[in-house]
């Protein structure tokens, strides 16, 4: 499977929900497989908060593949011998598409905290413009988990004739206070770190040394992504062998896990981008501007497949059941599957074998 990474530049303004505009703007995207002559074998994959356009395959010199490599590839669930798969980096992210680290045209000044607040709908609008430019007007499916699931649902509402299938995993129709509260901890940790310097930090120093505020914020995120059962299974009450039990800062294995993952994350993810993306997640409400969830889902014409996970403490299964019940109440084509998993929210990235048959069945 060949991995192709490209960038498109747009000079027409992108009108945002906030009333502001982005002009010009760029979108980085990655493709796998071949586009057929009818241009109708397209599967769009949408990434989550910390993800990027690199959903599958390897870059030269990499030890780890793209974030959903277990699902995407030749002969895999999303078969790149059959489908042309495309994954874009959302605007606001820090992996190549226009975001806070981009320069304010025509100057050399970076946006940083001057970047406009963006929403999931803005992300989707930008992607749809890209697909139009590529001559892609209908797709077989749009698939995403977590924030990627939000994008998939938004596509179904805003562009009802675009996708034959919408497959949303581990997501919600409106972000609840529980998640907003975790995001508040992360945001406060970032902006109150003295190294933040009101957004004027040195990026080279962060890449080398990490960013304490983002590390702490990411720890809060990790706790919400996992579950008590998965932590029991993964760590138990094991103590780090080289640390003293009665040393004040001695660590349990779960401490070390959070330290390691959070420190690494803070070296490659931009703190301001993190602030903007969690803001977009917090704002997300599919029925905003409508009288009810049923009213907005009335726009849906795609077949909807929802996949929830029993132990997900971030976007709980009942949130997805609400969508399914509303869809079926409207006579829409919707199916909900609840996966028996102890892995928590991250199950959609880890326990692929538990739901890959569902996705394969939809695509077939």
Distance between the termini: 20 Å
- According to CATH, the homologous superfamily of the largest domain is Alpha/Beta hydrolase fold, catalytic domain
The coarse silhouette is globular
Helix-strand pattern, N to C?
EEEEEEEEHEHEHHHHHHHEHEHH
By DSSP, the count of extended strands is: 12
The number of domains is: 2
- Cα Rg: 20 Å
**Biggest beta sheet attributes:** 8 strands, mixed
Within the largest sheet, what's the order of strands? 1-4-8-5-9-10-11-12
* Structural category: alpha/beta
Second-tier CATH architecture of the largest domain? 3-Layer(aba) Sandwich
Beta fraction:
15-25%
Which whole number gives the mean pLDDT?
96
Characterization of this structure:
The longest helix is centred in the last third of the chain and has 16 residues. The protein has 364 residues and is an alpha/beta fold. It has 12 helices and 12 strands. Helix 3 packs antiparallel against helix 8 and helix 5 packs across helix 7. It folds into 2 domains: 251 residues, Alpha/Beta hydrolase fold, catalytic domain (Rossmann fold); 101 residues, Rna Polymerase Sigma Factor, Chain: A (Orthogonal Bundle). The strands form 3 sheets. Strands 1-4-8-5-9-10-11-12 form an 8-stranded mixed sheet, sandwiched between helices. Strands 2-3 form a two-stranded antiparallel ribbon. It has a two-stranded parallel sheet with strand order 6-7.
């Amino acid at each position: 499977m060949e991995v192709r990474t490209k960038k498109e530049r747009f000079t027409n303004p992108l009108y945002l929900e906030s009333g502001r505009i982005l002009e010009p703007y760029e979108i980085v995207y990655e493709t796998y497989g071949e586009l057929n002559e009818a241009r109708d074998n397209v599967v769009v994959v949408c990434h989550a908060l910390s993800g990027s356009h690199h959903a599958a395959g390897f870059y030269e010199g990499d030890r780890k593949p793209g974030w959903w490599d277990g699902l995407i590839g030749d002969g895999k669930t999303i078969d790149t011998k059959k489908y042309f798969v495309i994954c874009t980096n959302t605007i606001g992210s820090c992996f190549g598409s226009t975001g806070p680290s981009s320069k304010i045209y025509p100057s050399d000044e970076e946006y940083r905290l001057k970047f406009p607040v963006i929403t999931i709908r803005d992300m989707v609008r930008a992607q749809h413009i890209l697909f139009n430019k590529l001559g892609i007007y209908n797709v077989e499916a749009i698939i995403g988990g977590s924030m990627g699931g939000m994008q998939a649902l938004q596509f179904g509402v805003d562009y009802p004739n675009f996708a034959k299938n919408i497959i949303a995993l581990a997501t919600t129709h409106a972000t609840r206070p529980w998640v907003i509260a975790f995001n508040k901890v992360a945001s406060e940790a970032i902006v109150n770190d003295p190294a933040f310097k009101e957004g004027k930090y040195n990026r080279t120093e962060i890449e080398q040394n990490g960013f304490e505020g983002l590390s702490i914020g990411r720890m809060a995120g990790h706790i919400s992504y996992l579950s008590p059962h998965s932590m029991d299974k993964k760590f138990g009450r094991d103590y780090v062998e080289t640390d003293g039990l009665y040393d004040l800062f001695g660590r349990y294995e779960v401490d070390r896990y959070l330290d390691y993952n959070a420190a690494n994350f803070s070296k490659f993810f931009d703190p301001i981008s993190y602030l903007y993306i969690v803001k977009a997640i917090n704002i997300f409400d599919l029925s905003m501007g409508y009288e009810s969830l049923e009213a907005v889902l009335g726009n849906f014409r795609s077949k909807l497949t929802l996949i929830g996970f029993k132990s997900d403490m971030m976007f709980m299964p009942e949130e997805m059941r609400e969508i399914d019940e509303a869809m079926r109440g409207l006579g829409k084509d919707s199916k909900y599957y609840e996966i028996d998993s102890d892995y928590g929210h991250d199950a959609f990235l880890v326990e692929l074998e538990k739901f890959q048959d569902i996705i394969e069945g939809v695509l077939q």
